[in-house]
Amino acid sequence: MKGIIFCAAILTIVVSCQNDDDYQEINQSLIDDTLSELLLEASEGEGNSFFILPDSNDYGLIPQDPLNPITSAKVALGQLLLHDTAMGGDPKIEDREFQYACATCHPVASAFHAGRRQGIGEGGIGFGFKGEGRFIDPLMPIDSVDVQPIRVPTLLNLAYQDVALWDGRFGGTGTNAGTEAGWDLIPENFEGFQGIEVQAMQGQDEHRLLVNEAFVDAYGYRELFDAAFPDIPSPDRYSRRTAGLAIAAFNRTLLSNKAPWQEYLKGDLNALTNQQKRGAVVFFDQGKCIQCHTGPALKDKAFHAFGFGDFNGDPDAVIKPGVDINAVARGRGNFTGNTEDDYKFKTPTLYNLTDAGFFGHGSTFTSIRDVVVYKNEGIPQNTTVPSEQLADEFGGLGLTETQINDLTAFLSDALRDRDLTRYIPETTNSGLCFPANDDQARIDLGCD
Predict the structure, then answer these.
(1) Which of 260-271 are b and which e, b meaning 16 or more Cβ less than 10 Å from the residue's Cβ?
(2) Does 236 reside within a domain?
(3) Is 318 exposed, middle or buried (0-12, 13-18, 19+ CB in 10 A)?
(4) pLDDT at residue 292, as a whole number
(5) What digits encode the pLDDT tens for the residues 336-383?
(6) Domain annotation covers residue 234
(7) Contacts of 256 (CB under 8 A, 6+ apart)
(8) Residues 223, 286: one domain?
(9) Taking the chain, what is the end-to-end CA distance rounded to the nearest angstrom?
């Protein structure tokens, strides 16, 4: 009887999707029952709890690196360091000091993505509202600009991965077992740190950030480091390493746990509209989204090829001299050297896509709906990707226009945590403007 009810519910929704673009009001309890069945199936019997994100201060439930246990002292320090433009103390051009921070390319207003297609650290000017108004200073030598040849990923829900970057090269455990041949320039991998910790340490070198004892004393951070790392000897306590561990601890608490979908999972059946619920049914059923986007963060730990385009075909993209964009386009394969990994990229979280603005590792989409249509049609942007590399979930879905609209509503609104400003500090220890501190950015951000 249970199976009959479930099938009837699916049939009702599918028929409505195909024959009535305006939708007659579908019995809400029928949709809820259908979703409940789909959640049980997708979680192998665990149900809603499998998909629930913990509270950001419930450290015992947040996945963490055993080498870097989360503490409130680390989180407090990491929050400040992530945003403090005083961290920008190692620029290539001397007069660019203290103009940028981690948050310059990971601002809260863009859900911790860059606010533009390519994030710009040193060498950028301005900020706009959410980073969309940051541009390369024409006076800056292009080979000195800190701009990456791939989309800046979000910091949201990072706790649900053990490797970092689109190709997953950061991280010395779990997913990266057997990839040691590619770790020559990543010593933290050999120490067994997970990807978030490695990224927070290596990122300081890559993005010209500087933390040392002079920084700590100049900006009053000594007590915070002492509280966060009391067991580390004083000579080693004020460093790039401890700063990275604090930033990583904070990053693990950046969870989209106030999104309507989370409230729905916790029992508030009115947290979603009927359209969003129908979109969730598509997500967990015919859309095949759940096959890659699973767990609390709606992402697995695997790598998939969906044929998204890269920066190499866009005249507006900035590719610095010496960057092999074709190697970047190989994704995971460029790191592992395994041709079976070519063109595969790490699964991103689907939360707060509305705030992201750009989608795909090459930022080749600016509309969530267009991405849904792209996946439904299965025609790759990057025509050099061999068909045998493409994910089974790419194309052949047969979604109707109404189903596409419903799925878009679920992705756009049900998964959007609208209260991310809770992660912004009121100020930083330096008191400098953040998340950017050049002359134009200070004007844009109202710091002057």
Answers:
(1) bbbbbbeeeeeb
(2) yes
(3) middle
(4) 97
(5) 999 999 999 999 999 999 999 999 999 999 999 999 999 999 999 999
(6) yes
(7) 53, 156, 157, 262, 349, 351, 352, 415, 416, 417, 420
(8) no
(9) 67
Q: Is the pLDDT of residue 8 over 70?
A: no
What rounded mean pLDDT belongs to the chain? 94
The model carries a pTM of 0.94
| pLDDT over 50 at 14, yes or no | no
Assess if residue 161 is contained within a domain: yes
Q: Which CATH number belongs to the domain containing residue 297 in this structure?
A: 1.10.760.10
Residues 215 and 280 reside in one and the same domain = no
288: nearest Cα among 34, 42, 44, 46:
42
Tally of structural domains, the chain: 2
Residues 181 and 305 in one domain: no
Structure-token match 């070198």, residue found: 205
Alpha helices in 349-438 (DSSP H): 368-377, 401-409
Query: Phi first, then psi: what are they for 381, rounded to 5°?
Result: -70, -45
pLDDT band, very low/low/confident/very high, at 60 (cuts 50, 70, 90): very high
pLDDT category of residue 10 using cuts at 50, 70 and 90: very low
Q: What number is the average pLDDT over the span 111-120?
A: 96
d(CA 252, CA 110): 18
Residue 203's domain comprises 72-255+432-444
Claim to verify: residue 195 and residue 333 sit in the same structural domain:
no
193 in a domain, yes or no? yes
Distance, in Å, from the CA atom of 410 to the CA atom of 369, rounded to the nearest integer, reads 11
- Helix, strand or coil, per DSSP, at residue 250: helix
Does the pLDDT at position 6 exceed 50?
no
Q: Are residues 155 and 230 in the same domain?
A: yes
Task: Establish whether the linkage from the previous residue to 230 is cis, with ω within 30° of 0.
Answer: no
445/130 Cα distance (integer angstroms): 10
145 has pLDDT over 50: yes
Query: What's the rounded Cα separation, in Å, for the pair 303 and 280?
Result: 23
Q: From the CA atom positions of the chain, what is the Rg in Å?
A: 22
- AA letter at 267: G
